[in-house]
Amino acid sequence: MANCIHGWGCAYRTLQSLCSWVHFQQKQTSASPRHPPTIADIQKALVEMQDKPASFAGSKDWIGSVEVGLCIDYFYDVPCKIVHINSGSEIPDKIAELTEHYRSIGSPVMMGEDTDNSSKGIFGVCGTGNDSYLLIVDPHYHGTVQDPQDLQQNGWVKWQHVRDFKSDSFYNFCLPLYKQ
């Protein structure tokens, strides 16, 4: 289970990407930073925190932004801020907050939503307000990268305009609040 990513929810992979970022930051100042958790570690932690029932461990149940935040705090002692957005049409209203997050903290952000049940890693912001783009890393990619340009050409890494998000979906951003 620890090494197989097929059939698992994409938020697990987004969480592992955020954990990799925290691991790299801690590696700069700690002799033994914690490696990113496995899916089994994540599920066990959520059960231990009493966020999930015992039957969750070993299941293929999905997680979302709230569970991602709980796990980053659990594994790395890094609190997270959850930013709830009622509709994709409100994302432009949060661009200044995301921009400040990247300027002051720099960590990637997890984005979850309800209508397509798909998490996304947000690794940057370009623009202001309604004329903004989010740098999206799609956690559904698997395989070996032969040419990094293939990731962009196939849409696995892309700049997505804020008006392209669904107005009939809510979104939750999970912002790790890592302090050096």
From TrEMBL:
It comes from the Eukaryota. Gene3D superfamilies: 3.90.70.130. Keywords: Hydrolase. GO terms for molecular function: deUFMylase activity. It holds the Pfam family Peptidase_C78. Residues 6-174 form the UFSP1/2/DUB catalytic domain. Belongs to the peptidase C78 family. This is Inactive Ufm1-specific protease 1-like isoform X2. It comes from Branchiostoma belcheri (Amphioxus). The gene is LOC109463410.
